[in-house]
Amino acid sequence: MPQFYTLLTVKGEQVFAQAINEQRTIQITKLGVGDGNGQFVQPYRTQRSLVNEIRREEVTSIRVNPNNLNQIIIEQRIPENIGGFYIREIGIYDNEDNLIAVGNYPETFKSELREGSGQSLLLRVVISVASADSVELKIDSSTVFATREDVENLHQNLSEEIEQKINDIPNASIQQKGIVQLSNETNSDAEDKAATPKAVKDLGERRVLDADYSGNVRPYSIPVGGKSQFYRSAGYSKPADMQNAHNYGCGIAIRTGETNTGFADIYIPHTENRNAEIWVRNGYQGFAHSNWTVFKPLPEMTSEVNDNSQNKLATARAVKTAYEKATEAKTLAESKQSPATTLAGYGITNFKVQDDLATANLNDITTAGIYGQPYNRQATTARNYPVNKAGSLIVKPSAYGVMQEYISFDDKTYYCRNKTRDGWGSWQTIGADKAPLQHTHTVEQITGLQGIIPQFTQNINQSGWCKFPNGLIMQWGVSDQSDIRFPISFPTRCFIVSHSKTAWNRDTRIGNLTSNGFTSAASSHPGTTYYIALGI
């Protein structure tokens, strides 16, 4: 056998066997590391925890070994800012925090950045299972780190795929979609080319200024106030005849009618709160202008279903999404209103509730559930009760079989035992080495205090002291003298003195602080000094 390896725990074997039998998958979610308490670790099947777990976090990668389909490769990357510990053991956990696999690891020290050297560490664990189909290959995407090899392989695959798709695209025409050739021409009749922004710009700069019947057009921008046979541009600055006139805008007057004696004015305001409004009016030579009519754009459309805006319109998609969400909520609510009054009504058939065990032997009660024993006379040691008292029995699965917990009805004593492949274990009293709930012990009866209490000594007077078990001494006193001595000397030194005077508006200070006392100075008569001192 190799020196370093990974194996399934007994719990892991049970979990995988049950998953295969029930045709469901297992979610492997976390990987833990430990330092083995500084010793080499030999993994074994019956482990229920690591020797000394240091860290447990989500796995960053899980996949099937392409060279061995019954092997699962699990990875976790520890970032450079995490460290300061050795790694000698590893553990794999499922989504119920069951330790399903353990392994030892070559002794590795994981440093962190604040130690002066930090780098990320990739842990890779391979476990063999009966069927990789029983493992759900799903991880938290927020914990995934891509290796350089992953990125390079993805880049190569995408480049090849993109190149192939480009080669498969045909040339575009008016009959089909495809790759379009660009052209700067402005007088071409081609139907398989697209105009560039330059071609569009060239056309946009051509305006009708002077037109003749030959169709020749001279490209030129019409200046403000300029005229042609067909157009007149108009630069407005707050038209006086305009309703709700604005400071800035631009417009155009279009001649109408066969004799060009009619016209239509179009005006667009530039102010921020009038963006995209279009004002229109018409008229005829010799007659007054008609009133301005404003055309406002439709509000902004949105497909969001959680937007609180009052100036947007919902799209059909938003309405459809809201309807579907409401339907889902209604269906879910109706599904939760089950008429079942028992656990079996909810599909739970492997749990039992029985209020009277009668004369049953507790060794035979192995179905998970809650049981009651209402009579003392039926709770006998011959029936394997821990105490001859009525009480409650709880049966639940354990690592190797089932566990029983019994609580007596009167003193609420808690008993526990396990059943393994070797049979039932003995009953254990939980908290048997602790004081009873109704204890009335005196201080002298409390274990462990006898050596501490004598270390508390004190002299309670107006000027006194108190010694604590940890060596700290607190002293206090009152004095009318400038040179003040402590009630007792500090064996080592005085840490701090705090004092106050009876009179006000004095400049007071402390000087000559020693283990025996201090000097209380004041700008005038010292008065009475009240002080407290701490030291050892």
From TrEMBL:
<dbReference type="Pfam" id="PF12571">
    <property type="entry name" value="Phage_tail_fib"/>
</dbReference>
<dbReference type="GO" id="GO:0046718">
    <property type="term" value="P:symbiont entry into host cell"/>
</dbReference>
<dbReference type="InterPro" id="IPR005068">
    <property type="entry name" value="Phage_lambda_Stf-r2"/>
</dbReference>
<dbReference type="InterPro" id="IPR054075">
    <property type="entry name" value="Gp53-like_C"/>
</dbReference>
<feature type="domain" description="Putative tail fiber protein gp53-like C-terminal">
    <location>
        <begin position="467"/>
        <end position="535"/>
    </location>
</feature>
<dbReference type="Pfam" id="PF03406">
    <property type="entry name" value="Phage_fiber_2"/>
</dbReference>
<dbReference type="InterPro" id="IPR022225">
    <property type="entry name" value="Phage_tail_fibre_N"/>
</dbReference>
<dbReference type="GO" id="GO:0019062">
    <property type="term" value="P:virion attachment to host cell"/>
</dbReference>
<protein>
    <submittedName>
        <fullName>Uncharacterized protein</fullName>
    </submittedName>
</protein>
<keyword id="KW-0945">Host-virus interaction</keyword>
<dbReference type="Pfam" id="PF21882">
    <property type="entry name" value="Gp53-like_C"/>
</dbReference>
<feature type="domain" description="Phage tail fibre protein N-terminal">
    <location>
        <begin position="2"/>
        <end position="148"/>
    </location>
</feature>
<dbReference type="InterPro" id="IPR051934">
    <property type="entry name" value="Phage_Tail_Fiber_Structural"/>
</dbReference>
